[in-house]
Amino acid sequence: MSEYFIRELIALIFMAIALGMDAFSLSLAMGMQELRLKRVALIGFTIGIFHILMPFIGILLGKVISGQIGDMTTIAASLLLVAIGAQMIFSAFNHQAKKLIQPYGFGLIIVAFTVSLDSFSIGLSLGLSGAKTFLVLILFGASSTILCWIGMILGRKVHGFLGRYSEILGGSILFGFGLMLLFG
Fold first, then answer.
1. Residue 134: domain span
2. In total, how many domains does the chain have?
3. Where in the sequence is the signal peptide annotated (predicted)?
4. Residue 102: enclosing H or E segment and its boundaries?
5. 75 within 8 A of 68, measured Cβ to Cβ
């Protein structure tokens, strides 16, 4: 293997892990909802698939349009994370409140879409730079799936220690991560 390919591979691995960290944070919060292991597996696979589809679309569009759209997707993703986190905190105090987005059915699609929006904007820039598409997609999908599973398993463990307060912690994580994306 050439030295250039190895450097590109290392950079893409670090990028894939960084992109998967938002899936990890979200999954940590979702894991506190005492999800069954089958649901954990499905959520991880769904988020992984979206981390393949979104950068693929971004790479395709990146070859056609400019990279200015990337800023808007980051803002949209961060505002959604803030809203979901705030709603989780609110519902922890108001037991009558229904959860805004559940990781079931269409809610799972919304969660996976939201957490993979940043990979779309990265895909745009990678499309402009001519990165190896297949390698990017495999790394992004695998890292987000694995980090998602780790987050949900850790969330299940933390929930046992914190009980009802784990939802406040999970909502705070999402809220803080959304603010970090928005202002960081």
1. 3-183
2. 1
3. none
4. none
5. no
